[in-house]
Design a protein that fits this description.
Number of helices: 33
Strand content: 5-15%
Bound molecules: adenosine-5'-diphosphate
Helix content: 40-55%
Oligomer: single chain
């Protein structure tokens, strides 16, 4: 067996061509042994030049390059089909990469690609680099053989059956890979598949390989992926797009349970109970809530979810909802390295969910991506997704408009989309989130772009009312063509005792104090919900004076403070919290013994959700609502303040149309939209502008008036048009700008000139100012 590739590479004509956007070859480089041809950009590439290239190639046995089968060879064949080099067996290093490095093909593909691309516009260098990539791949295959792996034998056997891939088969032969044919190939493939895939599917494939229906080269990639299946091995996007059959074959082999008790693969990998015990450490599924025929509802949901059904499940808070999607996600990850994306509105608490899951299962496959991460933290998560280390990803819905997020998940196969707190999808729900709606369209368009089928969608909520639920289910049927199974666990909680207490306004604080003294005994915690931020602070202060360890929590606190208070609450150090409804969504604290509503909540659903945070350990707990007549008034004022009027929505539409100036697309920030001269709003309509604009836009989107797409940040390259600051000052003075703005532009220019980097990118804002300068 030859130790290295040196001798073989001498027989290869290494080449690379560059093509412009009109599909014309504008430069070419080729190497054979010590000889080299380079036709630089700008030089003519006609029949004569190509004939010289062909003459050089005549001494070679093979042609070799990166991505030549789909790119270079067809391009050359178009302009000069007579070239003899086109008839030589081809070795494409892109084809070999996922086979040489199955554990982490992504790394290698990127590295190889960069290796080839780094030398800008020098195709001769690129051709040589492809040779180096091949030499490394050679070593990798030799290593696989030394370990006695069957995979390289299968690759060669399958390539040999494809007339276009004789070069690859010959290359493997030179590395010392023997040729398996006919029954030998079948027997080795069958043995290789054993225990790695469903028995029934294995038999089916082995029986049908030679029946004329099967393409052989995809089988190499099926083999490579299976050789490392079960963990973080990604099926490279190039393989998915180039050989879509690989995805469907792997699906049949590993995702479809055969139901036979004799199939070891299915018994292990399609059995949720094994995962429940091995990873979550629970003996059984929750017996309650139960289905009508008295089975565990949790188990039924998990079974359906693990079998990749789309579903809508209502489960009471604390009913073990998260396990219903986490366990199936874990199973999908093990079976197919699939990525399950959980859309959740609870940015601040995603991390807690991830930490709980990691602690419980001892795996590191869950992560969260939200606007709260720093850039380096975000980078780590994105890299983990790309490399296949992440199998469960919590995201806030606005991430779906983010380009880096989208490009990253394109590297992966999506196993399912989960909507946590699914009621946020409904415009009838009190918690309607505009970005949730966008996600439905995103799921459809993403699958279309990736040419994949629409993954299962699984919705979970504790609060959905009938009309909310049917609206969401109809939407998924209509927009994504999904059949949705329904699971109803109700929201009653038998361990909760409810009480309503009308009181006089001056008695409210005293009532709370008495309740704490009489109804509450440590350990365990208390949450007191107030309608307004100020109310939480007043009440907390009052209770502190009375000797309780208590803190106020509301959306106005800074993130560090919020985190500290939440942590102290979870640890039991602060047993009592006075909070607005910003507190509690997703907080996994079992032993809240008392939830007091100091003010009337915004809706019955809000109330159930907040009260439902009591007694999640299923021990008895109390939910007490105290109210005065005046509270009812306050509540009405609050909800009218947050309402968006038809007039306001119409104003925004006007503004958008005006800004678009008849064009199909317009890119605008909230501020820019509000400042359009045709937009006429009352002063109080400027409050919470961002939320109002987003909500209005999503209503307009729903009504078919517009379509909102991915967020667009633009950076432009440019150079200042002035030579020095004095010249700038002169030009700016003529613009008649307010003094502060003049100073701002001067400061920007000064910074640019000082840096001496006139070619750095400008932000859109800077550019607006600079182009104003250039117009004078
Ligand atoms: P929610 O429905 O509010 O999301 P969780 O999923 O957080 O509820 O579950 C509440 C608690 O019940 C968690 O501590 C979880 O670990 C626990 N739990 C879930 N399923 C089981 C089970 N089958 N056996 C025992 N505990 C379980």
């Amino acid at each position: 067996m030859p130790k290295d590739s040196g001798g073989f590479l001498k027989r290869c004509f290494l080449f690379d061509i560059e093509i412009n956007e009109n599909n014309e070859i504008y430069s070419l480089g080729a190497v054979l042994g010590g000889q080299q041809v380079l036709i630089e950009p700008g030089k003519k590439i006609g029949k004569r030049q190509l004939a010289d290239v062909d003459a050089l190639a005549s001494g070679a046995d093979f042609i070799l390059g990166h991505n030549i089968l789909a790119h270079d060879i067809p391009s050359l064949a178009q302009v000069a089909p007579e070239l003899r080099l086109l008839r030589k067996p081809a070795i494409d290093t892109l084809y070999l990469s996922p086979l040489a490095y199955p554990e982490n093909p992504y790394h290698r593909l990127v590295k190889d690609y960069q290796l080839v691309r780094d030398s800008v516009n020098n195709p001769a260098q690129d051709a040589k680099l492809a040779g180096r990539v091949f030499a490394e791949q050679w070593q990798a295959f030799v290593g696989q053989l030394a370990q006695g792996a069957d995979a390289p034998l299968l690759y060669r056997g399958f390539f040999h059956l494809d007339p276009r891939l004789q070069g690859l088969s010959a290359a493997l032969f030179s590395m010392g890979v023997p040729l398996l044919e006919g029954d030998d190939l079948l027997a080795t493939f069958s043995r290789f598949l054993q225990e790695k895939v469903c028995e029934k599917a294995r038999k089916h494939w082995v029986d049908h390989i030679f029946d004329g229906q099967t393409a052989f080269s995809p089988l190499s990639y099926v083999t490579a992926w299976l050789s490392v299946a079960g963990g973080n091995s990604v099926l490279p996007p190039w393989v998915r797009h180039h050989f879509p059959e690989v995805v469907s074959m792997l699906h049949q082999l590993r995702e479809c349970p055969c139901g036979s008790p004799k199939c070891n693969y299915c018994n292990r990998n399609h059995n949720p109970r094994i995962f429940l015990q091995d990873f979550f450490g629970f003996d059984d599924f929750r017996p309650t809530p139960a289905t009508v025929d008295n089975k565990s509802l949790q188990e039924e949901i998990v079974k359906a979810a693990a079998a990749n059904a789309s579903l809508f499940a209502t489960l009471p808070t604390g009913g073990g909802k998260s396990l219903c999607y986490l366990l199936p996600a874990l199973m999908r990850y093990q079976r197919r390295n699939a990525l399950t994306i959980v859309i959740s509105p609870l940015q601040a608490l995603m991390k807690d969910q991830v930490d709980n899951f990691s602690r419980q299962t001892g795996t590191g496959i869950a992560a969260a991506l939200s606007g709260m991460l720093t850039l380096p933290e975000r980078g780590v998560v994105l890299e983990g997704i790309r490399l296949g280390d992440i199998g469960i990803l919590y995201v806030s819905p606005e991430q779906l408009r983010n380009k880096s997020f989208i490009n990253t998940i394109r590297q992966r196969e999506i196993g399912a989309w989960i909507f946590d707190e699914a009621h946020c999808l409904s415009k009838w729900g009190h918690d309607f989130r505009p970005d949730y709606l966008y996600s439905v369209r995103f799921i459809r368009e993403f699958a279309q772009k990736e040419k994949s089928s629409i993954p299962p969608v699984q919705c979970f909520t504790a609060t959905a009312k009938k009309d909310v639920k049917s609206e969401i289910i109809d939407m998924f049927r209509r927009e994504l063509g999904l059949k949705i199974m329904q699971f109803e666990g109700g929201h009653e909680r038998s361990n909760l005792i409810y009480e309503v207490r009308p009181v006089d306004p001056y008695d409210k604080k005293q009532t709370v104090l008495e309740l704490l003294r009489v109804r509450y005994q440590p350990p365990g915690s208390v949450v007191i919900y107030c309608a307004r931020r100020k109310g939480t602070e007043d009440l907390a202060e009052f209770l502190q004076v009375e000797g309780f360890v208590v803190e106020a929590f509301h959306a106005g606190l800074n993130p560090v403070e919020k985190k500290r208070i939440q942590d102290a609450f979870i640890a039991g150090d602060t047993p009592v919290i006075c909070a607005t409804n910003a507190f509690g969504m997703g907080i996994d604290k079992d032993d809240v013994r008392l939830v007091i509503h100091y003010d009337i909540p915004g809706s019955l659903e809000n109330y159930l959700q907040e009260a439902g945070r009591a007694g999640r350990d299923r021990d008895e707990a109390e939910c007490i609502l105290i109210f005065t007549d005046q509270d009812i008034e306050t509540q009405f004022t609050l909800s009218s303040m947050s309402r968006l009027t038809r007039r306001e929505i119409a104003q925004f539409l006007r503004g958008l149309r005006y800004a678009a100036k008849g064009e199909e697309q317009v890119v605008l920030t909230t501020g820019e939209l509000m400042r359009q001269e045709v937009v006429d709003l009352d002063p109080d309509e400027y409050q919470d502008a961002d939320t109002r604009v987003r909500t209005a836009v999503s209503w307009l989107e729903r009504g078919g008036y517009l379509e909102r797409n991915e967020n667009n940040t633009r950076v432009f390259q440019g150079t200042p048009l002035v030579r020095n600051l004095d010249e700038a000052r002169e030009k700016i003075a003529k613009l008649d700008l307010p003094r502060r703005q003049q100073e701002r532009w001067l400061a920007i220019l000064a910074a640019l000139m000082e840096n001496g980097t006139p070619n750095r990118g400008f932000s859109a804002d800077e550019l607006a100012g600079l182009s104003a300068l250039s117009k004078t």
